[in-house]
Amino acid sequence: MTGAGADWRVVDGVTTAWFDAPSLIEGAALAGRVVQLSAETLVDLRATGTRVRLDADRHAEAVSAAARDLGLTANPAVSQHLSVVVESANPSAVRRFWQRALDYAPARDGGLADPLRRDPAIRIGQSSEPRPWRNRIHLDVARPAAAVERAGLGEASGAFEACHADPDGNEVDLLPGDALGDGPGTADWQEVFSAMACYRVTSPAGQRDLAAAAATLADDAGFPLLIDMRPGLVILDSGKDQWDDDVHGLELDFTDLAAQLQAAARDLGATADPGLPRFAQVFLDAADVEVLRAFWAAALGYTYDRRADVTDIHDPRRLNPVLVFQELDASEVERRRQRNRIHVELAVPPDLAQTRLAATVAAGGRLLDEAAGRWRVADPEGNEMVIVSGSGGPT
Length: 395
What we know:
Shape: globular
Number of strands: 26
Largest sheet: 11 strands, antiparallel
Distance between the termini: 24 Å
Mean pLDDT: 94
Helix content: 25-40%
Strand content: 25-35%
C-alpha cells in the first residue's frame, strides 16, 4: 500500500489499482477521466472493471475520487503481474535474440519489456549451471507476418516450422499472424491468437472517445472486448480465441463487430498501426497435464478455458499471459529432472504475498528457498515460480 490510499498497491514497481465495474461502458467513463489527468497513465478496460497503472503517484487521489464519483469500488486483492525469467551464461547474446523475436525494448533491470506494457517482461539472470536438455517451459508468440520476417531469426524448426532457440537453447515458437476476414471492413485487424487492432490517436480526448465508442458497441453485442489505452494509442483485442464463434458462445459473428469497431475508429480519425499486434503465452510440458494445470490455476488465481479439449488457463481479467499445457513423454526422465533455464516470476503487493504463498503451497507447491521479499516455489514436476513482493528483478 502507498500513501496514495487504500485503493492502490505497488506491483512490479508500479502504483496500480483495479476498480470493479459492471460493464465496459461504466469502466470507459472512468478511463476517459484518467487519460485526461495524464496521457502517460496505462489503462486496461475490461467487462468487469478497469486497471489503472500510474506514471506519477500524484494522480492517485484524483483517480480514486473519479472512481468514487462513478460508483466504482477498488479491489486491491486482484493486483499481480507475471513475468518470464531466462537464466543464461551469456545474457547479452540471449538479450539480443529475445529483443528481435519480440520487438521489446531494453528495461532498467537489464532485461526486456514490451513497449506497450501488455505482454510479459523478459528478465535475464546470470547462470553457469549446465543444462543439456530442452526446457519444459517455452514461449509461444504471434506477430504480424511482416514483423516475423523482419525479426530475422533464421530457419525455424518443429512441427509448425515456427520454433527458434536463443544461444542457450531457450525456445520460442514465433508464429505469423493473418488478416481477420477477407474484406476491407476488417482490414485494420490482425489474427494473432487474439483478434486485435491497434489505433493511433492524436490526443487524450481521442483516446477517451474511441474507448467509449468501442465499449458501447461491445456492450451492445454482449462481447467482453479488451480495450487497452496507452500514450497515443488504443488497442482493441478480442482475447485469445474469443473471436471464434465456438469459443465466445454468443449469437455473434465477431467479424461483424470488428467491422463496426473499425468504422467507429476511422470515423473518429484514428489510424491503424498494423505492425503492433502481438500475443505471447507460456507453454509448459507436463508429464501429468491435469495435475500441473490444477496447480498453476490455484497458484495464479486463473480459470480454466471453457472448451473441454483445450488445456489453457487464463487470468479471469485477461491482464496476465495465458498458460498452456502439453503432454511430455514420461520416458524423458532426464529432461524431467533437469531444472529449467526459464521460470516465471509473480509480483504481488507486500500485504498479499503471504496469502499467495500459502495458496501456492496448499495447491501442491514446494518452497525451495526464500529471501527478503522473494519465495522460490516448485510445482509438482519441478517447474519454478518466484513470488516477489517488491519491484521485481532477475533471480
